[in-house]
Automatic annotation (TrEMBL):
Pfam families: Anti-Pycsar_Apyc1. InterPro entries: Metallo-B-lactamas, RibonucZ/Hydroxyglut_hydro. Residues 23-215 form the Metallo-beta-lactamase domain. This is Metallo-beta-lactamase domain-containing protein. Keywords: Endonuclease, Hydrolase, Nuclease. The keyword Magnesium does not apply. One of its GO terms (molecular function) is 3'-tRNA processing endoribonuclease activity.
Length: 274
């Protein structure tokens, strides 16, 4: 066991669906034993570059979570599956690869990989690459952590978030990419880490129109974190027109409404989870 030193969050992408100046929101968590747990994969082949830039070791990643089936979250998963299948077929990946998702995403991934992967790569799906269907409240244990999936009750595509609970009780909660729903209070309240979307600054809401897309601003996400008594808040899934000043400006706005630690990562940033 590597202890707490190992735990960290590596942001592969931080932007919303239509960004061009950064990658779509996805990330991985380094667990206590050095295992890597991936969440979403962005919208395409760019995921392979982002993973390469962070020094990602596929052999250490046997578990992945996919929140929903929107373009900017699920299409990169096809590339991850292709890469893992290719490594398996070349004898460079030992063990199994497990993907956790709800029924809609599972069906999408099965259909898309069947249509797009080479036969020998697709043959890995169901034999050494497994798609596990989770339901609201499903619990999965792996690599020394306990994951509980929850339905965020999206008004758009069906979407799940999750709470990751470490052996020492540290709670890491991913809310997906839509505003918080009280249905999930048990998983978010008092979390050590809360990952929430913030489409833009409150002052820029007329420009980016987050509410029309069922997204929130930095202000709402920060007020939520304050209300829930969250220790650390990570804001992602943002616009990309303010990339140069985003970290500074968003952090300043977050501090107006939230007294914990606010993080506004750029792509490839690494945050120690403690």
């Amino acid at each position: 066991m590597g202890g707490h030193i190992m735990r960290k969050l590596t942001m592969l992408g931080t932007g919303n669906a239509m960004v061009t100046k950064c990658y779509n929101t996805c990330f991985y968590v380094t667990l206590d034993d050095g295992a890597l747990f991936l969440t979403d994969a962005g919208g395409g082949n760019g995921i392979l570059r982002q993973l390469e830039l962070t020094g990602f070791d596929y052999q250490k990643c046997h578990h992945m979570f996919v929140t929903h089936g929107h373009t900017d979250h699920v299409l990169g998963v096809i590339w991850v599956m292709r890469k893992v299948a290719d490594l398996m077929n070349k004898g460079k990946y030992e063990g199994e690869f497990h993907i956790y998702c709800h029924d809609v995403v599972r069906e999408m991934l099965l259909t898309m990989t069947k249509m797009t992967l080479k036969k020998k790569d697709f043959a890995r799906v169901g034999t050494s690459i497994f798609l596990h269907e989770l339901k609201d409240g499903s619990v999965v244990n792996f690599e020394g952590v306990q994951l509980t999936a929850f339905d965020i009750l999206s008004t758009k595509a069906k979407q799940f978030g999750y709470e990751l609970r470490f052996a020492d009780g540290l709670r890491f909660t991913c809310l997906g990419d839509e505003p918080y729903n009280e249905h999930d209070e048990a998983y978010a309240k008092g979390a050590d880490w809360l990952l929430a979307e913030a489409f833009c600054k409150y002052g820029d809401r007329d420009t980016f129109k987050p509410y029309e897309k069922n997204h929130s601003t930095v202000k709402e996400a920060s007020e939520l974190a304050e209300k829930l008594g969250v220790k650390n808040l990570v804001l992602y899934h943002t616009e990309d027109k303010s990339i140069a000043t985003r970290k500074q400006a968003y952090t300043a706005e977050a501090k107006e409404y939230y007294h914990g630690n606010a993080f506004v990562p750029d792509d490839l940033d690494v945050i120690e989870l403690g």
